Amino acid sequence: ERNRHHSWQELPDADEFQAFFDCYETHDEMQRVNSGPRRFPLERRGSGDLGLVPEAGFRTFAERETVRVPQRNDPGSVELPLPEDVYEELVPLLRSEVQGRWKCRIEEEGLDEELRAQLRGGFPELAEWTGVATLRRILRASQGSMAQAVPMLMKAIECRVRERELFQCMRCKVACDMRIIGRDRENRPAIYMSARSQTEPLRLLIPQVFLAFEAASRLAQEDGQAILVADMVQLQTHLNMDPFAFKDLANNFGVVFADRLKCILIVDFSFIAQAFWATVRPFLSERTQKKINFVSEAKARQFVKENFFGPTRDRILSSFDINRDELSTQEDRFAHALRTAICDVPLGELRAPDEEDEDSEVFGDEYLSDFLPCYHLAPAAKW
């Protein structure tokens, strides 16, 4: 087995061309796809100004056309509904109920000063969060229970109003290495974090958690879901034993990002971390708890190899290595986090090769803008 110190140091910096095509596993595959239907940017509403390495913004025409299976034009198959279609009859009811309750809250002045101040500037969150896609997601998360879905959505909208500035600027203080590290084989965004990298108490980490999941949500496919890999090696329990911060995180995160996670991989969850889990568990729904998998590093590596393609796989495995390398410094680990992130949120900047102009003749700004009209390759921000 390779020496951990050498493995993460040897992870190559992708130049512009490599970053552009490393969503393909071979050059032949790239040639084959490019000779077919034109490639289109990933289709997600409200992608805003996320800065992406080039490969992160693409999904082929064929991939978009095969989201629903079996195919509509297959006469021998019966089309199955997507999971979100199960509670379709409840969608208009949930929208009407939530909009009615907010109208009553506003008319009856059932708002605190902070909410009143925010709503003076308008209430775009109500329209956005009573859209069909969000209503379906909330109904999935509540398993079709209106008694749960209504207060859940009311709380989610309130949180979005209170945190409006955060979700508009998409910038925060970086308190750990949590970032979007790539995509799984089903093209879902993968969020990675290492407990060893945490430098601030939980209450100061919450904005970064929100922005990481917000970015993943905007980059997700039609199911809106992502994968979370949480590496708990060297968990710093003293930074995370704040019950008030836990309650705040659980009350807001659990509703804003309800049903956003397809799978949660918790790696190397030590005996010491059991106290941490005992604190977290009461705040998690039974549905979410069923998605959590506690595994050793060895099993996590096997999972990664089976569920991620080469580029993302290498980024995650090298992250396991650097966070277990006793010779690595905090500066090493943050530099590695930037090199292995595919999005500038929440760390604040893209890895350097994507902002250089050395290959501009082949993949310059004009060429990229032809393919990436929805995304802005943002200049580096200081964090």
How is the secondary structure organized here?
Elements (H helix, E strand, L loop, with lengths): L3 H6 L6 H6 L5 H8 L5 E2 L16 E2 L1 H5 L25 H17 L5 H7 L4 H5 L3 H10 L4 H17 L1 H6 L9 E5 L5 E6 L7 H18 L6 E6 L11 H14 L4 E7 L6 H7 L5 H4 L2 E4 L1 H11 L2 H13 L7 H10 L20 H4 L1 H7 L12
Parallel strand pairs: 4-5, 5-6, 6-7
Antiparallel strand pairs: 1-2, 3-4
Q: Could you name the key traits of this structure?
A:
single chain; 383 residues; alpha/beta; 5-stranded mixed sheet; two-stranded antiparallel ribbon; 19 helices; 7 strands; 46% helix; globular
Describe the structure.
The protein has 383 residues and is an alpha/beta fold. It is built from 19 helices and seven strands. The chain has helices spanning 4-9, 16-21, 27-34, 61-65, 91-107, 113-119, 124-128, 132-141, 146-162, 164-169, 202-219, 243-256, 274-280, 286-289, 297-307, 310-322, 330-339, 360-363, 365-371, and strands spanning 40-41, 58-59, 179-183, 189-194, 226-231, 261-267, 292-295. Strands 3-4-5-6-7 form a five-stranded mixed β-sheet, with helices on both faces. Strand 3 (179-183) and strand 4 form a beta hairpin. Helix 5 packs across helix 8 (132-141). The model is unreliable at 14-27, 29-47, 58-80 and 352-383 (pLDDT under 50).
